[in-house]
UniProtKB/TrEMBL annotation:
Protein name: Acyl-CoA dehydrogenase
Organism: Pseudonocardia kunmingensis
Similarity remark: Belongs to the acyl-CoA dehydrogenase family.
Domain Acyl-CoA dehydrogenase/oxidase N-terminal: 9-115
Residue stretches making up the Acyl-CoA dehydrogenase/oxidase C-terminal domain: 230-378
Amino acid sequence: MEASDLSDVLSAVRDFIRKEVVPLEEQIDAEDAIPERVIATCKEMGLYGFAIPEQYGGLGMSLTEEAQLAFELGWTTPALRSLFGTNNGIAGQVLLVGGTDEQRRDWLPRLASGEVTASFGLTEADAGSDPAGLATTARRDGADWVLNGTKRFITNAPVADVIMVFARSNPDAVGNRGISTFLVPAGTPGLSIGPRDHKMGQFGAWTADVHLDDVRVPAAALVGGEDGVDRGFQIAARCLAHGRGHIAALCVGMAGRLVHESVEYAKTREQGGRPIASFQLVQGLIADSVTDHLAGRALVLEMARAYDAGTDKVQGPSAAKYFASEMVGRVADRAVQVHGGSGYIRGVAVERFYRDARLFRIYEGTSQIQQVIIARQALGEAARG
Ligand SMILES: Cc1cc2nc3c(=O)[nH]c(=O)nc-3n(C[C@H](O)[C@H](O)[C@H](O)COP(=O)(O)OP(=O)(O)OC[C@H]3O[C@@H](n4cnc5c(N)ncnc54)[C@H](O)[C@@H]3O)c2cc1C
């Protein structure tokens, strides 16, 4: 992207979020829904396709550019980002990483415009951190594939027009091998979506189970065509690495907002006739959060630079996601502390962000899985024992 175009996009997004979305945060949390007019504006601004190449109608951002966008998106409820997070991230990347030219041409322009919402269906009841337990099956039947199984916690499943389903295509393969990815459009007979999960936070972002009961799809639904057979795990790993870089940047954005809320409260709240900002122990809480935020920001920008240069597409995203998701948890905790009792009360922004932030250490790979990846990269064979 041209630098001037990027700066225009960033300032338009910043204005939209601060003027139009922030005032709706409490409503979104209470109603567990994002107003239609906000969704429409996101589509108009190109947010459903920021990471999709321009040739398919997207904004074509590099990870460095995307990180700066996510710093802005992180300022408000993460439910906003979830609307279009799967199209740009885990689900859209499936086609960019592993799709055929035809699959990209067919789906990416509709993902980029927001006409279509896509989900990424990897997790199952017994296959979370380790996809080796994947039990969803894909069986060839003539030229078709027949899918059976249940996916769990799938973001945007209740509104998805298409789901990227990971299924075991080779029943004899063990571990991460023998998995393929299938494009399953909503409305395909045998595909059904469970009730919305009742989550701890991030209200307005929806997840649900996805049931596949003898779902028949044509050969053209196999991501990557015949070359994609049994390549599902490699595709998932690359999509998740990109997603981790993005989540890390989002955490930095949220940390910035939490610092802002903490500073504003400390300046106005008085105890003993003095603003609490004048107490050095409160200053210590704020100083630690400012330092955490700056460290996260620097790490994310360095990670994205190396990712775009192609020198580190694995360890950096895991390290950044690990650090930034833990970091925003600490910053949210301090923000509640600065607010005292008010920080524990519904309707106060930091209470909501405290709940929202908790998810970042869990999805797209838990903190422990990031540690495993970071150590494996550092130690190579020695880490595997
Ligand atoms: C709101 C939400 C949205 C989600 N969206 C999606 C989505 O769109 N698509 C999708 O496919 N999935 C999605 N997920 C699933 C998410 O990625 C998984 O929940 C996550 O990867 C953890 O898997 P699990 O829940 O099965 O936990 P488990 O894997 O059972 O982990 C339980 C605990 O064991 C630890 N652990 C597991 N294995 C190891 C190990 N080898 N070493 C050390 N510790 C380990 C974990 O760190 C964790 O502390 C979502 C989840 C949530 C809650």
